[in-house]
Amino acid sequence: MDVYQRSYCRPIETLVDIFQEYPDEIEYIFKPSCVPLMRCAGCCNDEALECVPTSESNVTMQIMRIKPHQSQHIGEMSFLQHSRCECRPKKDRTKPEKCDKPRR
């Protein structure tokens, strides 16, 4: 059952676009433009469950930040990595939160 173990919910190296992590830094070009991070992925074998992180840590990487026609420098940027994952019930994102307001 090697396939089952390899496809089950776990941290796996994933290439993540830096703009996905830093969407407000659009004035820069980053080299590299994506970084390898451990992120939760995989199957939970139940449609009601999703693979979510239960333990996270920050990792710092040196990234070149280029401001076109102005400057470039290598700086440290921090990224979130997942170190443990678990299958948990999906949060229902389709139903609006129910407010129990008193009726008049």
UniProtKB/TrEMBL annotation:
GO BP terms in the entry: angiogenesis; cell differentiation; positive regulation of cell division
Organism: Rattus norvegicus
GO molecular function, one term: growth factor activity
Gene3D superfamilies: Cystine-knot cytokines (2.10.90.10)
SMART domains: PDGF (SM00141)
Homology family: Belongs to the PDGF/VEGF growth factor family.
Localisation per UniProt entry: Secreted
Protein's name in the database: Vascular permeability factor
Protease is among the record's keywords: no
GO cellular component, one term: membrane
Assigned keywords, A-Z: Angiogenesis, Developmental protein, Differentiation, Disulfide bond, Glycoprotein, Growth factor, Mitogen, Secreted
Platelet-derived growth factor (PDGF) family profile domain ranges (all copies): 1-92
Pfam families noted in UniProt: PDGF (PF00341)
